[in-house]
């Protein structure tokens, strides 16, 4: 697997947040007192185990398991079993689709087709976790995950799309952009990382750029995904990042302002759908409050994006209409909400 990583386009210059805030959050963390906010299966097990008082932690892990199992209360044992089963069945539910992704990848290689997948949307909306599940069993020689950092001084003088186009797939390859050129339409204008003129020029030109690289006889497949999380769930995930030592690195300066600038990001989402959702390159909104469903449904979207040999006849490829929403439908709903309530609700 080849991963081209950076800070996902998040600049060091922000309106009011600072690195000091992130450092302060990290210093306040006590890994022995993980709050209820960590409600994933692994985190729930960890919380139960950490609450068990051992006089001395054994060096041997098996001995530690034996001692903890004797001290656990009945309700705690039930919680651990429930969390372990949830993790197991969620993982098993994805495997048939992950197997189909391998078939699809092989088909792209055999036919010389190329796939470009854009993962855009709110901060903490589950983009990275979904990407990891998609590529878990794929042939790592035939895909790349691209997460570009802020542009260099030279790149700032060039066409905004250029550094992304340079990462486009070769024949038979899949490239997954963990945030794409659409940073120019969302994060950059909201955070002041681009000028109004640059934003307007991008919004005016981006559709024609996409049409140009799609006009290659059907060789290139473009999938545009916008991950949408509710404000309440985003806040919960930020708290999880703050309190989990293994996730604190995810808490960026931009994240610290995401809640405060929620409405501004929503306005940019509305403009994005209005001007860049087309029949040739449509947006699909992925409701991602439920991470497992978002991951499963994203896999279905990819598998439905192109025919391939060996497609399972038993597996359900029908998208859940409550999770996957076409961009034009989302736009109409947002427009209706603003007309009725004077603001957006999604």
SSE arrangement:
Layout lengths: L1 E3 L14 H9 L13 H10 L10 H11 L2 H38 L2 E8 L5 H9 L7 E4 L6 H4 L5 H4 L8 E5 L8 H5 L4 H19 L5 E9 L2 H13 L11 H4 L3 H15 L6 E5 L3 H13 L20 E3 H15 L5
Parallel strand pairs: 1-3, 2-4, 2-5, 3-4, 5-6
Antiparallel strand pairs: 6-7
Task: Give an account of the 3D structure.
It is a single chain. With 346 residues, the chain is of the alpha/beta class. Helix content is 49%, strand content 11%. It is built from 14 helices and seven strands. Helix 2 runs antiparallel to helix 4 (74-111). The longest helix has 38 residues, at 74-111. The radius of gyration is 22 Å and the shape is globular. Residues 7-38 have low confidence and may be disordered.
Poorly predicted tracts of residues: 7-38
Give the % helix. Answer: 40-55%
Could you give the count of β-strands?
A: 7
Total domain modules = 1
Query: What would CATH call the class?
Result: Alpha Beta
**Helix count from the secondary structure assignment:** 14
Radius of gyration: 22 Å
CATH architecture: 3-Layer(aba) Sandwich
Which topology does CATH recognise?
Answer: Rossmann fold
* Biggest sheet record: 7 strands, mixed
Distance between the termini: 35 Å
Shape, principal axes of CA atoms: globular
Mean pLDDT value: 88
In CATH terms, the superfamily is: P-loop containing nucleotide triphosphate hydrolases
Structural class: alpha/beta
Binned strand content: 5-15%
Structure characteristics:
alpha/beta; Rossmann fold; globular
Short account of what is shown:
With 346 residues, this protein is α/β, with parallel strands linked by helices. 49% of the residues lie in helices and 11% in strands.
């Amino acid at each position: 697997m080849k991963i081209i990583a950076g800070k996902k386009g998040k600049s060091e210059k922000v309106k009011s947040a600072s690195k000091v805030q992130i450092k302060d959050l990290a210093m306040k963390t006590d890994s022995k007192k993980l709050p209820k906010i960590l409600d994933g299966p692994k985190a729930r097990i960890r919380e139960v185990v950490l609450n068990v008082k051992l006089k001395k932690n054994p060096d041997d892990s098996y001995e530690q398991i034996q001692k903890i199992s004797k001290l656990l209360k009945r309700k705690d044992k039930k919680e651990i079993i429930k969390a372990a089963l949830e993790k197991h069945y969620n993982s098993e539910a994805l495997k048939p689709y992950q197997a189909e992704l391998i078939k699809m990848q092989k088909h792209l290689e055999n036919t010389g087709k190329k796939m470009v997948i854009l993962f855009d949307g709110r901060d903490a909306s589950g983009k990275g976790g979904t990407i990891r599940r998609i590529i878990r069993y794929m042939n790592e020689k035939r895909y790349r995950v691209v997460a570009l950092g802020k542009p260099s001084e030279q790149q700032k003088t060039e066409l905004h799309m250029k550094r992304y186009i340079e990462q486009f797939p070769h024949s038979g390859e899949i490239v997954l952009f963990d945030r794409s050129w659409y940073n120019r339409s969302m994060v950059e204008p909201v955070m002041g990382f681009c000028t109004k003129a640059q934003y307007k020029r991008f919004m005016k030109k981006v559709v024609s750029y996409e049409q140009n690289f799609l006009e290659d006889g059907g060789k290139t497949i473009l999938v545009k995904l916008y991950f949408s999380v509710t404000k309440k769930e985003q806040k919960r995930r930020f708290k999880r990042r703050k309190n989990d030592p293994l996730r604190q690195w995810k808490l960026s300066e931009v994240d610290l302002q995401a809640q405060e600038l929620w409405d501004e990001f929503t306005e940019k989402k509305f403009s994005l759908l209005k001007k860049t959702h087309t029949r040739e390159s449509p947006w699909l909104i992925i409701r991602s409050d439920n991470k497992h469903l978002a991951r499963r449904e994203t896999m279905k979207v990819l598998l439905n994006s192109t025919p391939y040999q060996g497609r399972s006849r038993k597996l359900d490829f029908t998208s859940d209409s409550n999770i996957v929403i076409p961009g034009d439908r989302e736009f109409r709903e947002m427009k209706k909400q603003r007309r009725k309530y004077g603001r957006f609700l999604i």
